[in-house]
Structure formats: C-alpha cells, structure tokens
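step 4 of 6: structure.
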Amino acid sequence: MTGKSKHGAVHNKFIIDQGSAHLLKNKTLLLDTNALIDAYRLSTEFVALLDEFVTLGCDLTAARSVIIEFLGSTTDAQIIKGKAELIEMIFGKKLTSNTFYLPLDHKMPELETFLIFSRQVKNFSAIDFEIYRTMQKYRSHLLLVTRNHKDFSTKLVERISFITLLGTAEIHTYGVYKAI
Amino acid sequence: MYTNSMKPKKREIPLNKKRFLELAEKIRKAVDREEQARSGA
C-alpha cells in the first residue's frame, strides 16, 4: 500500500477512508489532544497526513483547553517550549495569533446541552465539552479529528470518515466527526 | 453560523518538515525520559 494519496487513496503512512475522504475537502479540522501527541509519537506519518490536509484544502484549529492540556502535561520547560513550536508548525500560525482559536462565547450553556453531552460520556470532561460546543457552533464547516471514540459517540455526533496513521509499530485510527 | 471572519487564516508559518521531525524526536525523547523518571524506572 504505497503511493501519494489523493482524496482518499491509500498511502504508506496513512489511510483516509476512500468513500468519505471528499467530505473533508475545504473543511476546518479541529484536532484533539491525542492527534497532537501523535504529531511527535508518529511524526513521519503525521507530517505526511498534514500534506494531505493541505491537498484537501483543510484548515486546522484546536480548542484552547486542548492546547493547554497538551502543553501543561509536563514539568520540563524545554518540553513545553518544544511542544509550543511544534503546535505552531502544525497549525501554521503563532499561538499568540488572534486567529488561532475559533471564537467561542462564554455564555452559560443551556441545560439541554449539558445533558445531551453528559448522558453519553463515562466521565464528564470540561475539555471534551468545550470541543462539543465548538463543533455545535461551527457545525457547517468544522470536523473533529479524534481517537477518543468513547466520549464522542454516534449518539452525540455523526462519524463521517476515519483516518488511520500507519506507524512502524503502532496503528492509530481517528474518527472524523460532525456535530448533528 | 460560520463566517469568513471567523474562519482561521491559511498557514502563516511554513511547515519545515526537517525541523518538524527533529523537534518531534527531541520532544519524544524528553517526554519518555520524564515519564521514566516519574515512574521511578
């Protein structure tokens, strides 16, 4: 399984489901923390996938809490600095840029929004809830890319595609989700 | 509602693949070292 992929073709470093890859075209992809971890764990495969996202015309973004979780999970200043530089290369913009995050209002969510989300998760996570609210707000153009399949079940979101990173000793499969 | 002003701008920082891979390796090693130290290995 080799060769440069084009809209869903097979690649030796990743696979985007052929039947649904076109649904990613020109969309903004919201990357979850697990995708950022794979950026340095499966870096060769991840870089190849970034190229494909460019080919598909995708923009990349992340929730603020995801970036904080990714940067904050260490006590080593050098790791934080390195991760910050990596993030800026992944998203193609400065962390301090006004356009890094999609604007999200700070109004208290409706009771129904809390309940819809909390009824389908094992443990409530403020980070996942922020992701869900961002997906809801930008539902027409935004797709979530995550390996957290349990907390974004198809009771809550629609799985429209999937992507697999083909590491040397690991295979990581992401769901691509759209708010219902 | 998703408007153009809300849409993130296209890449302002170019993707330097060589630098990306070097940095990723550095982070990977540092994180592994930190995790080993935490677990007392």
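step 5 of 6: annotate
 - Residues 17-39 of chain B form the longest helix (23 residues).
 - Chain B touches chain A at residues 1-2, 6-17, 19-21, 23-28, 30-31, 34 (CB under 8 Å).
step 6 of 6: archive
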